[in-house]
């Protein structure tokens, strides 16, 4: 695996913490254990003055990895499970308006919403596909299938509280 994917996630517009990107890189390259990676990748959220915002950025990074690195789906699922198994941090020192309303880790709050919002966009992927043809349409279809595969794998692994009802 090249460094390009990880370097691209450090673009300032991506708002990812370098510590999170590095922890993910070490995890996927098996330079660290999944448990150590889970502890390291979540540290910026725990120590943040705005955990809600930083949690959303971390979840975006993990979602991107699941979609864009299909060869690493299994290790990523193991990492998500390790994150869900972390003890919940004490957030009483955080400003009440910045505290997460619910737990940070168990069920990966709002991760399912992220998958839905990005993946389904109220069916707009179909409209996008109808406007295209050939290779562009094939790429859109492939992207949609990958999103569905990731969501199904999360459901099968019992992660992110994704409901199929």
Description of the structure:
- Helices cover 61% and strands 0% of the residues.
- With 165 residues, it is mostly helical.
- The protein has one domain (4-157).
- Helix 3 runs antiparallel to helix 4 and helix 6 runs antiparallel to helix 8 (134-157).
- It is globular, with a radius of gyration of 16 Å.
- The model has no long low-confidence stretch (mean pLDDT 85).
Shape: globular
- Amount of beta strand: under 5%
The ordered H/E elements are: HHHHHHHH
Number of beta strands: 0
Poorly predicted spans: none
What is the straight-line distance between the termini?
Answer: 37 Å
- Number of helical segments with 4 or more residues: 8
Instruction: Output the radius of gyration.
Output: 16 Å
Summarize model confidence as the mean pLDDT: 85
Biggest β-sheet strands, sense, barrel: none
**Structural class, judged by helices and strands?**
mainly alpha
The domain count comes to: 1
The share of residues in helices is 55-70%
Provide the fold topology.
Blueprint lengths: L3 H5 L9 H11 L5 H13 L4 H18 L4 H12 L26 H10 L3 H7 L3 H24 L8
Keywords, please?
mainly alpha
Entry summary:
By secondary structure, this protein is mainly alpha-helical.
């Amino acid at each position: 695996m090249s460094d390009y994917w990880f370097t691209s996630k450090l673009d300032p517009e991506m708002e990812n913490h370098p510590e999170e990107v590095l922890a993910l890189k070490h995890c996927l390259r098996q330079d660290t254990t999944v448990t150590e990676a889970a502890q390291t990748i979540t540290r910026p959220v725990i120590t943040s003055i705005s955990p809600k915002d930083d949690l959303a950025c971390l979840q975006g990074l993990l979602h991107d990895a699941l979609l864009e690195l299909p060869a690493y789906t299994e290790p990523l699922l193991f990492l998500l499970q390790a994150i869900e198994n972390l003890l919940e941090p004490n957030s009483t020192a955080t400003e009440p308006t910045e505290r997460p309303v619910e737990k940070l880790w168990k069920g990966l709050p709002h991760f399912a919403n992220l998958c839905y919002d990005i993946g389904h966009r109220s069916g707009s992927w179909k409209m996008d596909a109808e406007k295209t043809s050939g290779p562009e349409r094939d790429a859109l279809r492939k992207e949609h299938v990958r999103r569905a595969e990731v969501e199904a794998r999360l459901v099968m692994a019992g992660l992110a509280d994704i409901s199929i009802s």
